[in-house]
């Protein structure tokens, strides 16, 4: 515990946390690592990547949150596809963080270790956990914020220091956030991010709920960048839609 105390003291004094490099990952030699590529939805997200490009050209990495007002709106899918797009077509060194502790769908999609996360690594030592999973054929790494078996506190000081450390390692850090209705979102320090996207399920989220979620972001000091409409349906035939 002495090492943990000293690490946190360095953060409070303006220092940095121990390096959380993914280069020391340990994987079973017989494990199959499937290459992942952006899916069809990535085409719709291309303008989004272009819109945030000024943030990515800064001297330090950008932290972006993807969150939804309620569960089941597709925030994890959008965060995953956006991160893959940035790490492949955009060729950006990208880290995708699954911050949904009780249901880490994003981490499981990439066969990432869900037992321990980045915060756990600060407390127990990153040598003891496979913190970041590098996705073959891309510039994308994936990690959990807090593992299912971890009980390390993701307090404001620790999380702030973690963001700062990761900004020096990656050009883009995408955080798949828990739904705002869970009450856990504000603990992810939205005020320290470079921007927040609200994911909305088309024809499934009431306007009042959307307005309330946007207000929560702004009250927390977060920078609201816009909304992403998920699962939108075209009622016009495709060949006519292309002519409009």
A few lines on this structure:
By secondary structure, the protein is an alpha/beta fold. It has helices spanning 2-12, 41-51, 53-56, 75-88, 105-109, 118-124, 156-167, 207-219, 238-241, and strands at 62-68, 94-98, 133-134, 140-144, 172-176, 195-201, 224-230.
* Structural class based on helices, strands and sheet pairing: alpha/beta
Q: Based on the structure given, which CATH architecture is correct?
A: 3-Layer(aba) Sandwich
Helix and strand run: HHHEHEHHEEHEEHEH
Radius of gyration: 18 Å
Q: Which CATH class is shown? A: Alpha Beta
Give the overall average pLDDT. Answer: 78
Count of spatially separate domains: 1
What is the CA–CA distance across the termini? Answer: 63 Å
Q: Care to describe what's here?
A:
The protein is α/β, with parallel strands linked by helices. It has a single domain, classed as Rossmann fold (3-Layer(aba) Sandwich). The protein is built from 9 helices and 7 strands; from the N terminus they run H-H-H-E-H-E-H-H-E-E-H-E-E-H-E-H. It has helices at residues 2-12, 41-51, 53-56, 75-88, 105-109, 118-124, 156-167, 207-219, 238-241; strands spanning 62-68, 94-98, 133-134, 140-144, 172-176, 195-201, 224-230. A 7-stranded mixed beta sheet has the order 3-4-2-5-1-6-7, sandwiched between helices. Helix 2 (41-51) packs across helix 4 (75-88). The longest helix has 14 residues, at 75-88. The N and C termini lie far apart (63 Å). The relative contact order is 0.20.
């Amino acid at each position: 515990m002495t090492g943990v105390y000293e690490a946190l003291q360095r953060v409070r004094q303006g220092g940095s946390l121990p390096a959380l490099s993914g280069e020391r990952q340990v994987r079973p030699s017989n494990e199959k690592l499937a290459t992942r590529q952006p899916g069809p939805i990535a085409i719709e997200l291309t303008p989004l990547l272009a819109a945030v490009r000024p943030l990515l050209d800064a001297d330090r990495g950008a932290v972006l949150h993807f969150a939804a007002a309620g569960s089941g709106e597709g925030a994890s899918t959008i965060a995953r596809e956006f991160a893959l797009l940035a790490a492949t077509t955009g060729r950006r060194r990208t880290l995708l963080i699954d911050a949904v502790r009780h249901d880490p769908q994003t981490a499981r999609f990439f066969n990432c270790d869900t037992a321990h996360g980045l915060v756990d690594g600060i407390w127990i030592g990153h040598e003891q956990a496979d913190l970041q999973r590098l996705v073959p054929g891309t510039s994308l790494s994936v990690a959990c914020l807090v593992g299912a078996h971890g009980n390390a506190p993701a307090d404001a000081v620790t999380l702030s220091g973690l963001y700062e450390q990761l900004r020096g390692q990656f050009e883009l850090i995408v955080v798949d956030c828990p739904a705002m209705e869970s009450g856990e979102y504000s603990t992810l320090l939205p005020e320290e991010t470079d921007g927040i996207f609200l994911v909305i399920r088309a024809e499934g989220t009431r306007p009042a709920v959307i307005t309330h979620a946007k207000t929560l972001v702004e009250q927390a000091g977060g920078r609201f960048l816009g909304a992403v409409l998920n699962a939108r349906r075209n009622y016009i035939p495709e060949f006519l839609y292309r002519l409009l």
